[in-house]
Amino acid sequence: MIETKSCAGCGVTLQTENQRLPGFIPNSAIDKEQVICQRCFRIKHYNEVAQVSMDDDDFVQILNGIASTDSLVVKVVDIFDFNGSWLSGLHRFVGNNPILLVGNKLDLLPQAINPNRLVNWMRYEAKQLGLKPVDVMLCSAKQGRGLDQLVEAIVRYRRQEDIYIVGATNVGKSTLINTLLRHYGENELELTTSRFPGTTLDMIEIPIDERHSLFDTPGIINKDQIVHMVDPEDLKLISPETRINPKVFQLNDQQTLFLGGMARVDFVSGKRQPFVVYVSNRMHIHRTKLEKADELFETHAGSKILSPPHGENHKKLPPLQRRTFRIRPGEKKDIVISGLGWITVGEVGASVDVHAPRGVSVILRNALI
């Protein structure tokens, strides 16, 4: 057992005894200066998924010490999946430390979006969810956008203390830190990144001066996101990697939209109106009559018409559960399916049923765009 070394990619303690447990490395790699575990090696070089045995208690234990520190907490959310990537009850971990809210993956949103409006929207939604951040920043870690402003904000609010980067799985924390390190000339350390949830397994400490460090914390798993239920092959299709192209459908009542075979949106009643769908560009959307929807799903789930998921993968998902939403005239709302995207409806009023896998969060919020 190696007690004093941690994986440079995910932070987990390294060990040579059990290939099935986190942190395994072969004996031949022990003496290397920068060591990454077998799991990180496979993610980095082969884009493989490797399941690990960490539960909610493990994550809570890792994060529990932040409240006893004097630090700046940088909370990262995925703008595409703002609600699904939101960490509820963060105050239990951070105590009185200030929180800087960062919206990552700005590159995924339509180019016409107004950044100032987006910041105000995030600030309002954060307040509704019980959080009053000291500031709200936007960035794209993948493209390097907004990093100068983010660094200025971190310097302004950190008060010469440590920095903790926190967020749900797959919000891009490690990508953000890697981009910052490259941007400012620190190339020795590169954290393991991938589209697969739960890449970082333990706290990773990165010195920023003689007395203080930046800590990359493990992503907390929000189990109500659909990304934790799908096959890796389908995860690649539902997770957007390029700018979303909104798809507009002019619907009459008693029509249905299928988002692949992942979810279904029934326009039950209301005047003819646009339903604007914001999902991965690789997601196939199919329109049909509501009266035919049940039969279509039974017959074609997993086929080209209703995919992803592909083939028999749809049988691995929990059964679809219906939620009903009523949107009043004059409102413009987003119906959000956690981890999958959202549909903007309004402003003439509508009654809408949404069918999503049981356990996946489906909510109504003020329109983002």
- Shape descriptor reads globular
Figure out the total of helices. Answer: 8
Structural class: alpha+beta
Count of domains: 3
The spatial strand order of the largest sheet comes to 3-2-1-4-6-5
The rounded Rg comes to 22 Å
H/E series: HHEHEHEHEHEEHEEEEEHEEEEE
Please identify which CATH superfamily of the largest domain we are dealing with: P-loop containing nucleotide triphosphate hydrolases
**What portion of the residues fall into strands of 2 or more residues?**
25-35%
CATH top level class name of the largest domain: Alpha Beta
CATH A-level architecture of the largest domain: 3-Layer(aba) Sandwich
Instruction: Give me the count of strands.
Output: 16
Main pleated sheet: 6 strands, mixed
Mean pLDDT: 83
Question: What is the element layout, followed by pairings?
Answer:
Elements: H1 38-46, H2 56-63, E1 71-78, H3 91-94, E2 99-104, H4 115-128, E3 135-138, H5 147-158, E4 162-167, H6 173-183, E5 204-207, E6 213-216, H7 232-238, E7 247-251, E8 255-259, E9 263-269, E10 273-279, E11 285-289, H8 290-300, E12 320-327, E13 332-337, E14 341-346, E15 350-357, E16 362-366
Parallel strand pairs: 1-2, 1-4, 2-3, 4-6
Antiparallel strand pairs: 5-6, 7-10, 8-9, 8-11, 9-15, 10-14, 12-15, 13-14, 13-16
Question: How would you portray this structure in words?
Answer:
With 369 residues, the protein is an alpha+beta fold. It has three domains: 1-51, no CATH class; 56-222, Rossmann fold (3-Layer(aba) Sandwich), CATH 3.40.50; 234-366, no CATH class. It is 21% helix and 25% strand. The protein contains eight helices and 16 strands. The strands form three sheets. The protein has a six-stranded mixed beta sheet with strand order 3-2-1-4-6-5, with helices on both faces. The longest helix has 14 residues, at 115-128. Mean pLDDT is 83; it is low at 48-54 and 191-199.
